[in-house]
Specification:
The chain has a 5-stranded parallel beta sheet, with helices on both faces. It has 9 helices and 5 strands, in the order βαβαααβαβαααβα. It has about 160 residues and is α/β, with parallel strands linked by helices. The chain is globular and about 40 Å long. The chain has a single domain, classed as 3-Layer(aba) Sandwich (Rossmann fold). The model has no long low-confidence stretch (mean pLDDT about 95). Bound molecules: shikimate-3-phosphate. The site of shikimate-3-phosphate has 10 residues, from helix 7.
Amino acid sequence: MKSIFLVGFMGSGKSTIGKQLAKKLKLNYLDTDDLIEQTANKKIKTIFAEDGENVFRDLEHQVLTSTSDLGYVISTGGGIVERQENRAWLSTKQVVYLKTSWETINERLQADQDRPIWQDQSRDKQLLLTKRDSLYRDIAKITIETDNQGVDQIVDQIYSIF
Ligand code: S3P
């Protein structure tokens, strides 16, 4: 079976849903953020702090384009759509967009300490969501609204499509 790539903003549930979906479809599971941390041998927070966002985005591109198009459910980082090359690469794949409202994201990430973009006070995250929302929609084959559904329901919905 062809790999399924999950995209969506920080806090949209890509990892939680990805793991359950992979189990249900009997596919392997990968998370691009985990692969980046393994490649760099550093936490994402540390890569941003020591090397900067550009180095992180280079690693993210490298890791994404090395993933297999067969046999995986792959959760991607929320900023995967920032680079045009990633959008072009993903637009030929089975991409599922987990669409989540600003209110839900804001509530979920209230206590988050690990996401440098979320912590960056100089950025307007709500505006970033609006901008990325259209990028996610452009590359996705399927969009799932996650706000009023539990994890099991979302997984079942994606499962029934593939
Ligand atoms: C980022 C999202 C994070 C991680 C990094 C940058 C972003 O992934 O890749 O902190 O630019 O939105 P999650 O979407 O899994 O939080």
